[in-house]
Amino acid sequence: LRNARHANAMAQRLAEGVRAIDGVEILHPVQANAVFARLPHAVTERLQERFRFYFWDEAAGDVRWMCSFDTGEDDVDAFLQALKEEMAR
What we know:
By secondary structure, this protein is α+β, with helices and mostly antiparallel strands. It contains three helices and four strands; from the N terminus they run αββαββα. It has helices at residues 2-19, 41-48, 73-88, and strands at residues 25-26, 34-38, 54-57, 62-66. A four-stranded antiparallel beta sheet has the order 1-2-4-3. A hairpin with a 7-residue loop joins β1 and β2. The longest helix has 18 residues, at 2-19.
């Protein structure tokens, strides 16, 4: 259970950071280790060059970000910084 709690905490950290970025919408309450969000296609494509994640609904621009037992705070923070930079472009 410790690993699951950690993954869930990292997903909460990710969601909190995403909520502070204009133009990115969290689609569902974060209840586990997944974060569903909507962002511009161009941003998704640029982020996918550096991070592994997938479209959930490509037509809508929805993505799914997953955190796991080995996702660290530094990983989340690096992704959030990259997302912020891409959204500002």
